Amino acid sequence: MPAQAGKDLLLKLDRNDLGTFESVAGLRSKKIALNARSVDVTTTDSAGGWREILEGAGVRSASISGSGIFKDSNADALVREVFFAGLNRPWQIIIPSFGTVSGLFHLAALEYAGEFAGELTYELALESAGPVTFTPQVV
User: Fold this and answer.
1) Nearest C-alpha neighbor of 132 from the set 108, 106, 104, 107
2) What confidence score (pLDDT) does residue 8 get?
3) pLDDT tens digits, 82-134
4) Whole-prediction pTM value?
């Protein structure tokens, strides 16, 4: 896979939980973290005293954070609405030439910033609130 432009990563939001996603923002800088906490089942009988992890157990989570600019004022208003209402909504994170991360997310943080002679930017953080899927891009 050739190198991809970081600016092409896109956030989409399903405002009504109906399966219709709207592009709300591009991310200039971003981080996607997938986590799987393990369940340690080590006992004194564990072979050689090595740690044993229970397969298929534990808590999995996804965190997405980034900064950039909103698509337009309507997208900004939609994201603010979701934040102030404390809603968990379906989001899609489109990673060009790679795939799509989809799932129910909680908008955990929303920050605004701007330079005197520059555009208004935002930073946000999404935390998974249910199962997350990855759909690879079909080439």
Assistant:
1) 104
2) 63
3) 999 999 999 998 888 888 999 999 999 999 998 888 888 889 999 999 999 99
4) 0.81
Indicate the domain borders of the chain: 6-136
Q: Tell me how long the chain is.
A: 139
Residue 45 and residue 86 in contact, taking contact as beta carbons nearer than 8 Å: no
Average pLDDT, the chain: 87
**Domain 6-136, CATH among 3.30.450, 4.10.410, 1.10.3470, 2.60.120:** 4.10.410
The DSSP code sequence of 22-90 is: EEEEEEEEEEEEEEE---B---TTSGGG---B-TT-S-EEEEEEEEEEESSHHHHHHHHHHHHHT-EEE
* Cβ partners under 8 Å of residue 72, min gap 6: none
CA distance 39 to 52: 9
Tokens (6 digits) for 95? 């990673």
Q: Residue 1: pLDDT above 50?
A: no
